[in-house]
Amino acid sequence: MHHTKLGRTGLRVSKLCLGTMTFGLQCDVAQSNAIMDAAAAGGIDFLDAADVYPLGGGHNTAGRTEQIVGDWLKGKRHQFIVATKCVGQMGPKPWDLGMSRKHILDAIDASLRRLGTDYVDLYQLHGYDQHTPIDEALEALDTVVRSGKARYAGVSNWPAYKGTTARRRRRKVRASSSAPQAPAIRHATGTTRNSKPSTPCARWPRKRD
Known about the structure:
The protein has 5 helices and 8 strands, in the order E-E-E-H-E-H-E-H-E-H-E-H-E.
């Protein structure tokens, strides 16, 4: 398996990233573990999850995928690059979703508990929330990275123009702050899996869902 740089960062990851969105619903624990075993045997050391996974579930299944991945990673966490995401609905309250500072900071802590680790390598916003100012979301991502809970941060499933706006706003946030800002949006740029114009996000080379 060849490795390549993650976006504009210095981090090198396997060219294939294993998506896990079916783990815990369409695939039971045994099937999920078998898939991860086979991926690892083939040289894939980049795993992508999200707090709302498995896809197609509800509040009662949200987080199940991260739990399965976390259990499988026990004793071998350092051998893999782990990515996860937030923004989706995780509970019945209006603050249980979106890009607000509260939700992002609550969500990263919950994901780390389920994954059984004290950090993820890549933390992404899993969609765009039009009700939250971009500055608030960027500052929350900076907080996540500065706290050591994520090595890099980025976005997924964003329109290209929103990613461009985020990068511009981040530069303004940095310029108005006396403290150095953690690497966030600028470090996770790539293209989405569709054929639309290049979208700043963390859909790095290719991944299997």
